[in-house]
Design brief:
L-fuculose-1-phosphate Aldolase, binds zinc ion, nine-stranded mixed beta sheet, 5 helices, cytoplasm, about 240 residues
Length: about 240
């Protein structure tokens, strides 16, 4: 190997290890936001130019992870890096149960990063209207933070029903990705939300906007106001 290709290899390895460390750092931040507590939630970053995908492990305290806890997959889903086994009481490393869902989202959308949050506000917003097939909100400044949307637009996010195992959501997610071509988020009733963007920066900032809007909807509902109308006026109750 000549010195030029050696230096190329070095930079590729550095990009992968830097991204693994970044996911660990971001999950520490998301923990403080209440998105990944109790080992819940997950994150993935795709390194398009290297054909590699980083994923968080399953059943691990997300705020205590380091770079070496990350799984790295090839674009076809095969393993590229498996984390080392840690001494008891740590369990053997296992990739996130979201793995097939993340791969499906990457396949159907041009995403560079995906965040799966177990935030309370993402759950509650689906419980207020238990029969709703989607979450709709308009006339809120933070809607501008969602790609392709402005203040006056109606933001529509599909809601799917929860399942006992994360992997069982695959058919519902596939269906709503087809039915809602503009969406870059899917809410799972009583469970959480998947949010993605073209980069980790886009996924993170949009995730902040989505959580803000879910929180706003819950607070407006508590105030007796209808979050889904332009005026956010009083909730009309049918007698
Ligand atoms: Zn989950």
């Amino acid at each position: 190997m000549d010195s030029h290709s050696k230096s190329g290899q070095f930079w590729k390895i550095k990009q992968v290890t830097d991204s693994m460390a970044l996911v660990a750092e971001l999950c520490g931040h998301f923990y403080k936001m209440g998105w990944v507590s109790g080992t819940g939630g997950a994150m993935s970053v795709r390194l398009h130019h290297l054909g590699l995908i980083i994923m968080t492990p399953s059943g691990v305290q997300k705020e205590r992870m380091t770079a070496e806890d990350m799984f790295v997959k090839c674009s076809d889903g095969s393993d590229f890096i498996i984390p080392p086994v840690k001494a008891s009481p740590h369990k053997p490393p296992k990739c996130s149960d979201c793995n097939p869902l993340f791969m499906k989202i990457y396949e159907m959308r041009n995403a560079g990063a995906i965040i799966h949050s177990h935030a309370m506000e993402a759950c509650l917003v689906t419980m207020i209207r238990p029969l709703s097939k989607d979450f709709r909100i308009t006339h809120m400044e933070m809607i501008k933070g969602i790609e392709g949307h402005g203040y006056y637009d109606e933001l529509i996010v599909p809601i799917i029903e929860n399942a006992a195992q994360e992997g069982e959501l695959i058919n519902s997610i596939t269906e709503v990705l087809e039915a809602y071509p503009r969406t870059n988020a899917v809410v799972v009733r009583n469970h959480g939300v998947f949010i993605w963007g073209e980069s980790w920066i886009s996924a993170k900032t949009q995730a902040e906007c989505y959580h803000y809007l879910f929180d706003a909807a819950i607070k407006l509902h508590q105030l007796g106001m209808d979050w889904s109308t332009p005026s956010h006026g009083p909730i009309k109750r049918s007698s």
